[in-house]
Amino acid sequence: MTMSAHVPEPELLLAGERELPPQRQAEVEAHLEVCSVCRARQRELEREMERFSAVYRSSGDAVRAPARPRRTWPAWVAAGGAAAAMVASMALVSLRPHAPLPDPSLTPGATRSANAQAVCAAPEESPPVRAETAREVFARYGIRNPKPRAYEVDFLITPALGGSDDVQNLWPQPYAEGEWNSRVKDALEDHLRALVCAGRLELAAAQTEIARDWIAAYRRHFRTERPLAGHFSFVKDQPWE
């Protein structure tokens, strides 16, 4: 594994439990030391699994199965390799349909050829995502029959910052649910664009920040650990209908 490659989600969870084969465990731990994106994803996955486990334990089925299903995954990964990892990853997506960060293996971000002058001369509003493209994005994330108004099929790097309409730049982001939703991200997008157009931030730097970890970028630029109250009502883009 190269240091530039992100760790698949099933392995992030297994590494947290120290259930990977020894050599792979060491590789993943070394990668986590230098990759803030994967560290953030690992923490978010663990929180989601803990929430799922809490709900599961509160149900009547809890007495018939382990409370933490991730402990059954090493056999999947060892026996099935990449295919098993993909199945486990899709299972994770189904457990966390409202993830605030995209899966970087599915949505690494993509840009079009544009400089700051061209970006700042273009409209700020994002063009609507075509219905067939949106359906492809939902399918890639294992989401069937998405609930209307629950998601925005969002550009990871907004077109207002030079992002493209490639599916690798799109993901189903929670529209208004949860703390880190699309409205909060929209506020960050407008702030970064203003910085770029004022000559206070390089376009490439803004693109990298929002693609790498938009929540970390928000915290850094707004100097807060939690979204600002006014940003929860910030409305710019429309939800999936």
Description:
The protein has 241 residues and is mainly alpha-helical. It has 2 domains: 9-95, no CATH class; 116-233, no CATH class. Helix content is 49%, strand content 4%. It has 8 helices and 2 strands. It has helices at 9-16, 22-34, 36-58, 73-95, 116-121, 131-140, 182-197, 203-222, and strands at residues 151-155, 170-174. It has a two-stranded antiparallel sheet with strand order 1-2. Helix 1 packs across helix 3, helix 1 (9-16) packs across helix 4 and helix 7 packs across helix 8 (203-222). The protein starts with 8 loop residues before the first helix and ends in a 19-residue tail after the last helix. The relative contact order is 0.12.
In short:
The chain is mainly alpha-helical and 241 residues long. It is built from 8 helices and 2 strands, in the order H-H-H-H-H-H-E-E-H-H.
Shape: globular
Low confidence ranges: 59-97
Mean pLDDT: 77
Number of strands: 2
Total number of helices: 8
Strand order of the largest sheet: 1-2
Query: What is the total number of structural domains?
Result: 2
Strand content: under 5%
Secondary structural class: mainly alpha
| N-end to C-end Cα span | 40 Å
Query: What is the gyration radius calculated from CA atoms?
Result: 19 Å
User: What is the H/E order?
Assistant: HHHHHHEEHH
Mind describing the biggest β-sheet? 2 strands, antiparallel
**Helical content class:** 40-55%
